[in-house]
């Protein structure tokens, strides 16, 4: 069972559909985007680092999300900016999935981005 002091429940894994982002609004945190790539789930900031666009509304192709405003792009797995005008990377959060529920560690400082930044969806929750 996740430590509720460190992990924040975001969404049920079943509600994260492939090839489209799911926006999660929390009371005391900027909006998040939850993405599913194959059987893995990733959580990033939802707001583009170039402007005020919601990346959960962007197109997903080859593991990248394209910003709906100016067509910048980010690698969903790493947060790396992959297309101009985006330069600043997107924050990626460490997550875990317990009983089909997706939790993120929102207090992570970003230095561990890419480490346990995703979690495999258990077969029972697919
Ligand atoms: S706001 Fe996202 S590329 Fe400009």
UniProtKB/TrEMBL annotation:
The record's section on PROSITE patterns has: RIESKE (PS51296)
Keyword Metal-binding assigned to the entry: answer is: yes
All residue ranges annotated as the Rieske domain in the record: 8-104
Q: Which Gene3D superfamilies match?
A: Rieske [2Fe-2S] iron-sulphur domain (2.102.10.10)
Which InterPro entries does the protein's record reference? Rieske_2Fe-2S (IPR017941), Rieske_2Fe-2S_sf (IPR036922)
**SUPFAM superfamilies annotated for this entry?**
ISP domain
> Sorted alphabetically, which keywords does the UniProt record give?
2Fe-2S, Iron, Iron-sulfur, Metal-binding
GO molecular function list: 2 iron, 2 sulfur cluster binding; metal ion binding
Can you name this protein? Non-heme iron oxygenase ferredoxin subunit
In which organism is this protein found? Noviherbaspirillum pedocola
């Amino acid at each position: 069972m996740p430590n509720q002091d460190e992990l924040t429940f975001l969404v049920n894994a079943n509600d994260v559909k492939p090839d489209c982002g799911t926006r999660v609004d929390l009371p005391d945190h900027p909006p998040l985007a939850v993405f599913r790539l194959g059987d893995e789930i990733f959580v990033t900031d939802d707001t583009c680092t170039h402007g005020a666009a919601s990346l959960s509304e962007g197109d997903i192709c080859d593991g990248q999300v394209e910003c709906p405003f100016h067509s910048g792009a980010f690698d969903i797995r790493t947060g790396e900016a992959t297309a101009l005008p985006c330069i600043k990377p997107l924050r990626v959060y460490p997550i875990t999935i317990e009983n089909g529920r997706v939790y993120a560690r929102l207090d992570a400082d970003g230095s561990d981005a890419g480490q346990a930044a995703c979690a495999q969806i258990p077969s029972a929750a697919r």
